[in-house]
Amino acid sequence: MILLANGKLITRNPEGPGYLPDGGVVTDGGKIVEVGGTAALKAKYPQAEFVDAKGGVIMPGLINAHTHIYSALARGLSIDGYAPTNFYEVLDGQWWNIDRHLDLAATRASAQALVIDSIKQGVTTIFDHHASFGEIPGSLMEIAQVTADFGLRACLCYEVSDRDGEEKALQSIQENKDFIDFCQRTPSEMLRAMFGGHALFTISDRTFDRMAEANGGRVGYHIHVSEGMNDVYDSLQNYGRRPVQRLQDHGILGPRTILGHCIHVNTAEMDLIRATDTMCVNNPESNMGNAVGCSPVLQLFQKGILVGLGTDAYTNDMLESVKAALAIQRHNACLPGVGWREATEMLFKNNAEMAARCGFPELGVLRPGAAADVIVMDYKPFTPFSDANIDGHMLFGMTGRQCQTTMVNGKLLMKDRQLTGIDEESVNAEILQVSKKLWGALNHRTY
Fold first, then answer.
1. What is the tally of helices (H) and strands (E) in the chain?
2. Which residue, among 109, 125, 135, has the nearest Cα to 192 in the 3D structure?
3. Distance CA 86, CA 209 (A)
4. CA distances from 226 to 280, 282, 345, 364 (A)
5. What is the pTM of this model?
6. pLDDT means per 10 residues in the chain (447 residues)?
């Protein structure tokens, strides 16, 4: 039993209390037992291990609804001859190039790097969309082992695509199927599965049918949709359908399916997404960086569509992502008063709902019975502070690097900025050796 207290407690519990100026949580067996004032909890649970928040902000752990472990070793990388002029060249020249060189060792190192960075920035659950066409079989289990070793919650899938031929596509489908089989044989609140797919312009009708057959309706799909105009052009020219309509044709849509990006979707497609209660994920910084456009988040909300927030691995800092989400929506609408509700709800409310749909326990809230995923932010406000204005403090005052303590499933993964149970220096040294090998293969020289 752990008592994490002596901080400004933000519960995100609509039933209250929403805020306690000196509060904490008692956790046991991976769940929250009680929420209350520090003194009262200390008196009631004298046997509990006391973890001092030191006046920081105690709040629910953050959720990243869309990321890519395969890109973790790209930080600082420059690929010779890579000078993209459009989105396809970004994909083919960098990301597909990288994942074609990933073997299981590189997949493991990538997972270690992203998971450590997530823990250090208060992210307690990730939805990863993996690709390692250099070595496909066993890649999801390699990632799952890392998340288990390091203690992070994860929902994993493999990116099915025809871009490297039929054999690789079949291996990708089998990798999803095998991992779904594993998750069903060994159910866990820490690990979930989805069925992954790359952008529609890299997936044939035959491959979609094979995906649906292998899945058998067991889990939802996690797929890139209309991130670039490539999807729209390909669907119309080769199939006579818009991308979302094409997904409906193959039974991909539904309340457990996540559509990543959804930038170039029209009104009819939004209506279809809403009618099937399908989820979407916005990844603002990645979209801006790839120059593919701005997702119509305001319109998606108006339609009643559940929209979450991810990073597409552009960053692992969800607070950085929510700041960008607000700014780009206002910039795109040319209206300085819009986007606040949408940006904050995506991160602090909708991501938790998406996690629940995928089978995770109650996340994103601190109350008895909810999962004990708790973080402490080293934040000393110099203006009035409470649950009435916490989002303003987070948008304009906090960053992920201010996370000082991270708890997942009742276990402390980081305490006072020190990772627990992980020899970070040793792991980083191993990751560096793998990344040097990867960079050498990409640029045909030694690093």
1. 17, 18
2. 125
3. 30
4. 11, 12, 23, 29
5. 0.97
6. 98 95 98 98 98 98 98 96 95 96 98 98 98 98 98 98 98 98 97 98 97 98 97 96 97 98 98 98 98 98 98 98 98 97 98 98 98 98 95 97 98 97 95 98 95
